Amino acid sequence: MSDNNRVIIFDTTLRDGEQSPGCSMNLEEKLRIAHILDEMGVDVIEAGFPVASPGDFESVNEIAKTVKNATVAGLCRAVKADIEAAGEAIKPAVRRRIHTFISTSPLHMKYKLQMDPETVVEKITESVTLARQFTDDVEWSAEDGSRTEDDFLCRCVETAIKAGATTINIPDTVGYAIPADFAARIRMLIERVPNIDKAIISTHCHNDLGLAVANSLAGIQAGARQVECTINGIGERAGNAALEEIVMALRTRYDAMPFTTGIDTTKIMKASRTLSAITGFTVQPNKAIVGANAFAHESGIHQDGVLKHAETYEIMTPESVGLTKSELVLGKHSGRHAFKDKLREMGYGDLPENAFQDAFRRFKKLADRKKEIFDDDIVALVDDEVVRTQERIRFEGLQVQAGTSGPQTAALTLIVDGARRQAWVEGNGPVDAIFKAIREIVPHPDAKLAVYQVHAVTGGTDAQAEVTVKLAENGKTVLGQGADPDTLVASCRAYVHALNKLLVKREKAAPDEGP
User: Fold this and answer.
1) What local confidence, expressed as pLDDT, does residue 327 receive?
2) Is a pLDDT exceeding 80 seen at residue 509?
3) Residues 6+ positions from 341 with CB-CB distance below 8 Å
4) At a CB cut-off of 8 Å and minimum separation 6, what does 32 contact?
């Protein structure tokens, strides 16, 4: 890099993020996220683990064909078949990277790899050398690097660079590190590895102790110039370092951390909301940067201060992350042109025509039922439509009878693989009846309802309800999400969304998850 203070943003939402239980995405969804990441200026998109399944290979390959600016990376173990699959998958990309890894901590080498240190060093040389046959851009990761002995870590890093690695990643794979120790480890490598100047040092921190972002920033201050992260911080267990938090921390505290990125921060909210809608992972209200309360003020003292001067209680502007100040934006008399302009303003200008028409029809129906239409209403209905365009099961219609006199019943119509199917079912309440009707139309006896949550998207009694459903089946979990002013319709949409994901998940198998 010509600018030593420029930090490379390596996004692994589509690889490590997708490994979150219930976060599987189909090809269309992955392409949609990849397009947003490319648009917002992410430097490297880790598109997946090509050897994991034919579906993973296809998604990495298709992303490699469509991404215009970012480097496309494929993850692989230190295994010949893995590396060859990654090399073939990323081949169409304008800029391509192979990311290969092997464990280096005593614990992992003994119990996971069952290899001695000398064999691990040999594997590093072999894997990086082979990867260089497919691309000059090779990243090597020391899995469980934060628990690796200093001397051995230095030896492994030196070996990887000598074999041709141009980026060296030091993962805190299990979220064990604390900022001071993690920074000291980066400085130690810079001071002790003789050829370290020939590679960029990267961080990859997990959030098991809530320190992923803090550790990543400490690593940057110590000399790392790439940070691996995900939108909304999704990922294995407690997740990864959150892209939006790292980028906005660097931007906001440039006085203390004089580093820059290439991220267009005004695209952050679009990325966060889109990923949330696709995965069904609702962003917690008090989540930094992208949570619903991140720019909300209830305390009278705070409100008074913000009204007098925003900087009294806001260290960044809502506009800087892509939020708009307007609340009431459209109504039932608005036409297609106004709706399209609003979608473009909110980052949905690239909506396919059929998806736009479907979204507009749903908007008009919503406008007839709600007095006020808010930005979040539009986000909910558009995402609710778009993320379902490629699924096998489609919601068509629902009639529910509820109340104290009973019985509570649901008459449901679904389109399953193009065929209309109906069921009329009694239940212990309307939601129970709806879910039983879905099970009758699409039997899935081994799947259990693990989570059912409802919250309002916006204020008022006519607010859209957003429902999250989690299904669990034989160790697999999936999340579905649905939004509608009718809570029961939203519940049905969420369950159908989750069931579609479960059908995909049944076919997906993955090897070792990586750093």
Assistant:
1) 42
2) no
3) none
4) 274, 278, 386
- H/E run at residue 73: strand 71-77
Q: Who's near 30: CB < 8 A, 6+ residues apart?
A: 14, 18, 47, 48, 59, 62, 63
Over the stretch 277-336, which tens digit does the pLDDT of each residue have? 888 788 888 899 988 777 764 445 555 564 566 667 678 888 888 876 544 356 777 777
- Please enumerate in sequence order all residues whose Cβ is within 8 A of that of 283, keeping only pairs 6 or more positions apart, or say none: 232, 272, 276, 290, 291, 292
First to last CA, the chain: 25
- Counting Cα atoms < 13 Å in the Cβ hemisphere of 295 gives 17
**CATH numbers and ranges of domains, the chain:** 8-279 (3.20.20.70), 300-386 (no CATH), 393-505 (3.30.160.270)
- Structure token pair of residue 232: 């909304």
Question: Which amino acid is it at 483?
Answer: A
Q: Note whether 30 and 46 are within 8 A (CB).
A: no
Give CA 173 to chain center in angstroms: 18
Among 166, 254, 176, smallest CA distance to 217 is for 254
Q: Of 432, 430, 381, 391, give the one whose Cα is nearest residue 414.
A: 391
Instruction: Return the ∠ at Cα 144 (arms to 246 and 244), rounded to 5°.
Output: 10
Cα dihedral angle (100, 105, 106, 107), rounded to 10 degrees? Answer: -90
**Strands 44-48 and 393-401, sheet pairing:** unpaired
Q: Do 307 and 356 form a contact (C-beta atoms < 8 A)?
A: no
**Rounded CA gap, 12 and 37, in Å?**
10
